[in-house]
User: Fold this.
Amino acid sequence: MAASAAEPGPTEAARIIMHVDMDAFFASVELKRQPALRGQPVIVGGRGDPSRRGVVSTATYEARVFGIHSGMPLRTAARLCPDAVFLPVDFPAYHAASAQVFDCLAAVSERLQPVGLDEAYLDISARTDDPLAVGRQLKATIHATTDLVASVGIGPNRLLAKIASDLEKPDGLTWLRRADMRERVWPLPVRTLHGVGPRTAERLAGLGVECVGDLAALPLEQLTAEFSPRHAQSLMASAQGIDERPVQTERIRKSIGRERTFQADCRSSGRLDHEARLMLERVCEQLRERRLGARTVTVKLRYRDFTTHTRSRSLTEPTDGMETLAALVHQCLFAHRLHRAVRLLGVQLSGLVASDSDGRPTGD
Ligand SMILES: [Mg+2]
Assistant:
């Protein structure tokens, strides 16, 4: 937490964060399959039948003009826009499109934090090229690969990058600096800020706060009278465009690991311990090849009756150090009931984080 809301934190000054958000994602995937629907109000939700229960997942911009938004009951949407085309949700199709989009994102930066199927934060601080050029190129690549349109926001942190990606949607490309706060962010409703939900917004309205600028102008004492000191501090920081949250890259790859099924069930804890170590050595090689550190170790055992159990241990800091990880593997293994016959042993590393250039994993 920054000591003063007026000054950026030391780590923040150098960061460049990009927020990529696909425009009307589900609906756009549907339009790709049914180009004849382009230009029409299209609503994706539930079983695609407004006479049955269900809510709007995504609507095209042509439908949003009628006041239709995500989470609205399909019945209401049909009333607001009787001519809309309703389509059922098809998750396998959206997952496939999402995988293509994330391949494009991963090529820009490995420091990538997915948010659902159609959004992600990228930390592009390490890139030396112009952030706007990076954004423009990424949008072009996504469009060429998937025929879908993304909005890109760039900022000094996640808070402003996310606000930026929304400012010129659809097909937006916006760079928001903290110096732009007064002009571009302060006029926005306070709900725009991360962490301001309906209840917080209601309490803020009680203090006369409607837009972000109202919040920025509010004396801290008034906020602390209504909210906990911590909540008040974080609201005040948000109103000033300050956000220290790192891009959480550990979900780039979920895990790496190995499994081994024994020819004959294994009943020796000494042998399991030895095998687990050999497997870890191989996995650690992969870890270093990919310049990653791991925070969590999981050991899986499948017994003769096919019941499967896992035990995990986590570190506070990621590492690629063999001995540190081996100690965790040993702990996990002996947390299992080892007197039973084991048919399969698995060792897995997760909580993976990109290492920096000298091979040492970094915290975020
Ligand atoms: Mg989106």
About this structure: Residues 269-289 form the longest helix (21 residues).
